[in-house]
Write a structure and sequence with these properties.
Elements (H helix, E strand, L loop, with lengths): L3 E8 L3 E4 L5 H4 L11 H6 L1 E7 H14 L9 E4 L10 E4 L3 H12 L3 E6 L1 H9 L5 E7 L6 E3 L7 E9 L2 E8 L16 H8 L1
Parallel strand pairs: 1-6, 1-7, 3-4, 3-6, 4-5
Antiparallel strand pairs: 2-8, 7-10, 9-10
The chain binds NADP nicotinamide-adenine-dinucleotide phosphate.
InterPro entries: DHFR-like_dom_sf (IPR024072), RibDG_C (IPR002734), Riboflavin_Biosynth_HTPR (IPR050765)
Protein name: Dihydrofolate reductase family protein
Organism: Nocardioides nanhaiensis
């Protein structure tokens, strides 16, 4: 059955990229691509990809700089308001995740849906109940500010944890819809009141 997986690398302080959309913090890190959370094994199970416009433009620009062709054989849905160049297999879409979900699921077939990023798009999948799993490889680096990994409050279950050279690789299941009722805790906290209670 298709699972929707947010597979990504992150800094230790929870960013996908720095404030200038640079991935320099990531590209020099040591990883065994055949090891835990390696790309080859992961991509083999992917039936369709989704990504936001900034991520897509980074991939296109990277291809232009390195001469590497578009690297995905699976259909790729790019959420954007822009008229961007689109190689074969790329569909530019705008609007809500819910609106495009039937086409994404159909394109994925028996494979998984890879939410490439960014974080807000992954959050939009969660908002609509279409995020099943996170696979996050965390690099031993902080950047202080940048593009957030997942700007939501989620309750997750850690299902597996491995080291891949420089990276801490963690697999999480997104908790079931029932947990949304208890997380986040209702209402803002009154810190003065809590302080008085423990005095
Ligand atoms: N560490 C990693 O492994 C990793 C993984 C993925 C991404 N990244 C990096 O992280 C950064 C992510 O950038 P980001 O936070 O800006 O997120 P993003 O999702 O890549 O791009 C956000 C943009 O996508 C478009 N968009 C998103 N949702 C839309 C919708 N529902 N309808 C229409 N358009 C929509 C909008 O752009 P327009 O309105 O301009 O079209 C929006 O500003 C990038 O630098 C990327 O390279 C890193």
């Amino acid at each position: 059955m298709t699972a929707v997986v947010y597979y990504t690398a992150s800094t230790l302080d929870g960013f996908l990229a720095d404030e200038h959309d640079s991935l320099d913090w990531l590209l020099g890190q040591d990883m065994d691509h055949e090891g835990p959370m390696g790309y080859g094994e992961f991509i083999a199970g992917v039936g369709a990809l989704v990504m936001g416009a900034t991520t897509y433009r980074w991939v296109l620009e990277h291809g232009r700089r390195t001469g590497e062709p578009w690297g995905y054989t699976q259909p790729c849905f790019v959420f954007t308001h822009r008229d961007l160049p689109a190689p074969e297999g790329v569909r530019l879409v705008s609007g809500s995740v819910a609106e495009h979900w039937p086409a994404i699921a159909e394109a994925a077939g028996e494979g998984d849906v890879w939410v490439v990023g960014g974080g807000e798009l992954a959050g939009a999948f969660w908002d609509t109940g279409h995020l099943d799993r996170l696979m996050v490889s965390t690099a031993p680096v902080t950047v202080g500010a940048g593009r957030p990994l997942l700007p939501r409050r989620l309750q997750l279950t850690l299902t597996r944890l491995e080291r891949n050279r420089a990276f801490a690789c963690a697999w999480y299941d997104v908790a079931g819809p029932g947990d949304r009722e208890t997380w986040p805790p209702a209402g803002p906290r009154d810190l003065d009141e809590e302080h008085d209670a423990v005095r």
